Structures are given as C-alpha cells and as structure tokens.
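Homework help board

Subject: predicted structure for assignment chain

Our instructor gave us this sequence and asked us to write out the predicted structure in token form, then describe one feature. I got the tokens but I'm not sure how to describe them. Can anyone check?
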Amino acid sequence: MLIGFAIMASVPLSWGSGADYARYLPADTSPRAVAWWTTLGGFASAVLLSIVGVLASTAVDMTDPQTSLKDIVPGWFYPLLLLAIVLGSVANNILTTYSSGLALQAVGIRIGQWAAVLLDGLAATAITVYALFITDFLDALNEVLELTVAVLGPGLAISVADVILRRNHYRGPGLHDETPTSAYWYHGGINMAGVAAQLLGTGVALLCLNSLYVGPVASTLNGADVSALLGPLVGGLTYTALFRSLYSRQLDRVRQSQVAYGPCCQRRQIPPRGRAIT
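My token output:
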C-alpha cells in the first residue's frame, strides 16, 4: 500500500514546483481559483484515463499495455499508437519541460531557454523509448516515479518551508539581482541551507525506497516504501533549522521590507518573461 502511495504521490509532488507558467497570471488572480481549477483539471483527466484503462482491461490483459493494446486495435494503427505514446508523453509534459528549462537556467547553466527545452525534450523522448521498447513499461514507469519522489519530495518541502519562513514575501527585482548586495545572495550566490537540506532529504528518501533496490529502511519495514513521507519531512525540517541559523539577517530584511513596502508586496511579483525564479 505504501509503495502504491509513493507512486500516486509522485504526481502532485512533481507538479508542486513545476507550475512556473502561473506567474504570467495577473497579480490579483484568486489563489483559490488557481488551486481549484488546477486540482479539477488533474483529477478529471486522471479519472477519464482510468476509465479507458478499465474498459480496455475487460478485453485484454493490461499488465503490459503497450503490448496488450495490439490485440484490440487495427494492425496499421498499432505503429501509430506507439508513436503517439512516445510523442504524447513529451507533448503532455510540455509545461514541465518549460519549467525544467527555467530550472537549468536558474542553477547557472549558460544556455538559451529554447536550447534548454530542446535538451529536456530529447532526454524525455529517449527515456520513453527505453521504457516502451527495451524494458517493461509499467515497471520502468513505477521505478522512475518512485525515484522522482526521492528528489522532488524534499525539494517541494524546502520550497514550502521557505515560503513559510518568508511569509510568502519575495521582491522580484531582488530575485534577479545576481550581485552580493542581493538579499538572496546567501554564500557566493548559493543557499547552503537549501543544498544541505536537499541532499539530506534525498539521502533519507533513497534509504527508504523499494524500487530499483530495497533500501535498508524499507527492508527493516518488510518492504514498506516510506520515501514520500520521510524525505519531505527531513528536507523541510532541515531547511528550516539551517536557514534560521545561517540566514537570520535575510529574514530580518524581509520583515523590514514588508514594513517599508506595505501589504501590496505580499503577492509574488511577476518577473520578466523568460527569466527563472530561484
């Protein structure tokens, strides 16, 4: 049950830090509306696809769907179906690819946005081809999703912890100030609290995995995979403790900025198009 939970949790965890496109919405957009429509869109599509899978399983064994579907579709259509799966897996994640391209730029890689998106698209296509034609599709998918939890779970927890510590107060110009005078400069431009928390949270999650291998924690728990629980917990708590210890002055500057600029700055400002948010 916990392994299944880890697989299901990978979907919201992977999107939790990937909705960079929302920054193009007007500043007065209702946060509740954003949360509601995003949730409804994800839920409705998942239910519809599940219904299709259930109907197909009444006719064929869907243990290995890309192979089983060959028995219920015309012969000429099957190669097109496989091509659609490969290309569709990339196209359906175009917003994630866009966000991933911004992430590559944000970590300091000197690459254009179009090149970063192209690089991610090629990598995603290669992984999809491997999952479809070289290994068992569902096994490969589950393994990738569980490994994703180990990275994105702590990362999302760190992002949430930072929002709470700063009371959701970020100054757009400061986020793009890449000089030591920036309030987001930290140590040489690197948030060491975030790096340490990510490494520790991911390390703990990897110890709890029951995917490509059985981690020592999962082995102790008779195979239970608790990576989606312990990874974010350790990452978030570690970041909170280290950030308060290392960057208390930054928190003070945030509070002073809140007083100086007033409540209008509680909302995150919309940065120029094509630039990343760190």
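Reply (TA_rk): Your tokens look well-formed. For the description, you could write something like this. Residues 263-278 have pLDDT under 50 and may be disordered. That's the kind of observation they're looking for.
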